[in-house]
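Quick entry, no commentary yet.
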Amino acid sequence: MTGLVRALREYDGPPVRLMEVCGTHTASIAQNGIRSLLPPSIQLVSGPGCPVCVTVTAYLDRLIALSRRPDTVVVSFGDLLRVPGSRESLAGAKAAGGQVQMVYSPMDLLRLAKEKPGRIFVFAAVGFETTAPVYAMLLNRAKEEKLENIRLLTSLKTMPPVIDWVCRQGTVDGFLAPGHVSVVTGSRIFEPLAAQYRLPFAVAGFSGETILAALCTLVKYRGQGRVVNLYPSVVTGEGNRRAQAAVEECFVPCDAAWRGIGVITGSGLQLREEYRAFDAGSDGLLEDREANPACRCAQVLMGELLPGGCPLFGAVCTPNTPQGACMVSTEGSCYHAFLNGGGSQ
């Protein structure tokens, strides 16, 4: 690792701005103090790769409304419960009498649906290519077992279109590509973007040493359209074909709204017509209004602002009193900046 740090610190080329996209990379970078190891000429910014963080408030508001129906239970992972909608969070709705339940796996819905056949269980299906295969597995199990009280409210997004959006802004010189997503999609999915924009992509794991190696790779190939796979133990060029087929069976591409960005054509996944009976009303969830208008979560997600640039960071907004999704999620930039060294790192 010492040699990698030395190579980065001795970099004497033009300034480079590198973006990590995956929320797990964001966490590892913060926990390993990687930004503090870089020279001023290498700037590392976070991108829109935290699934909870990029979910718009209209989606959260719909979940909250569903939780207030007497026959409906909203089921979610824990990190979504405290994310503010336009007025309140799911946790707030639950405290006020809404029916909200946390689980550790979407497959838990199978048990819940069997135990209470008179209730409709709506899973908050957020995520990227990584989690979409799990939702496909859930739907196929529900069909096999003839469970008619399972629904998904989908806010599923795909990586290449949003990375393309970032590339078109012309503010990033290379990408630490998302490792978990690449396991499913394969590393070759980034090759068209690398070639079109002449930018390097490094697919990497999550250890500090691996991330440093990826940053060295990106600096080395600055200005070149290359995709380098530094995670060959689990990532192949073609990806997981079985998982891809499962997603294609249940979902089709659609336009999707991203917090702070707006609608990106073809960047989402919606249920195919054959599976629409499982949909809980996912269409038209495009509006995004921060409960606290001073929150700068959107700019942080786009790499325009470090967490410390938000006027709320560390004062009004902390992990105990989050004002935006970036401070709630354990993959959020603000959350890790607060816990691991301040908003400027």
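second:
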Amino acid sequence: MDKWVPSWQYVPIDYHQDVGVFENITQKSIFTNNLNGKKLRFRLNNLFSGEPLRIRHGAAALRNRVTGRLSPRMPLTLDGREELTVAANSTAYSDEIDCPVSCEEDVILYLYFKEKYTVRSVCTTSTWQSWQSVQYTGDFTRTEKLGFTVKPQLVPALAREPYPNQFAAGVCEVSVLTGAETKLIGLFGDSITHMSYFSDPLTAILYDRFPGRCAVVNGGISGNRIEKSHPVLRDFPGEGHQFGIAGRDRFRQDLYHGGRPDYVFVLEGVNDCSHSIVFQEPDVPGAEDIFKALADVVHQGQSLGSTVYVSTITPFGAFGEPWRDRAETIRCEYNDLIRSRFAAGSWVDLDAALRDPDDPHRMQAGMDLGDGVHPNWAGGAKMARAVAGKFFQTL
């Protein structure tokens, strides 16, 4: 039986401020695809905006990763119209595009923003393996162009973020209509998931091992907490909204919108251990509070028919700030609860995989981005290998 399966999906981030302005801009996005199917569609994103999104026109194409062959561009329509209009604070699926899709073919999407549009929400990644997006000044939905429009000019709010990233405006999902037996894998978490140093290597491993048989979607939000929503930071851009609502409250809407994942991997809690201390909130959750939120997420996923795996939290004791010792105590207690209360085989010990054998409160040398918290390519690859083993047994 044919069904729509997300081939790519990230969470649209609520920045609670103007991120930038698009006018006479073409955005070209390339999404790695591992599905065979008959049709394509795109979920267009205009969440967290008070004005309609009007895209003058768009197009899609397929590019074979093996041969390099590029298909003709196919026009994108919404409700039969070439101009794509999405109401304020909403998303909308494009009309279906009839075309055979191979798991060897990546999906390319061109969107032309002709009229001035204030961007308030985008999908982002710190890497470039599973998807990438560039922007050009001018209309290039029908022709190619060298070069790009530099990010500080286009989205100054994103250019100020501490870690480099790329972004896609106006889109948050690519889906394929397939009749094949496929498994959807949802990754849920905070920046360690969102930044994609871990999710990209995992996606590459699974797509290489199971061509045409699975798809991976990313439900991470940097700074997110599982037990409570973002802190209210009056002096912070967007007052902290970009960290998102509590993971337990956003789980369904951010991971299940495009389809029900057969498997979910949850890696969240590091910000719960530290943010309330760092931002001096009156109530600091203990390990038991954070674990109850994690157990709630697991129950939600299981009740929706997903097999749910969880992970211990990776080390972050590094630079000796005054809050680190207290946060580290909470992290260790939280990890002990995961190890003792979840059934064997339902969790992955990424703490053990990444910790320094000489100092278990720190990440191994060469495994992080220099902040002691976020894994780099080496750390992400090590995590991916540990997690992939779970899926080797089930896919």
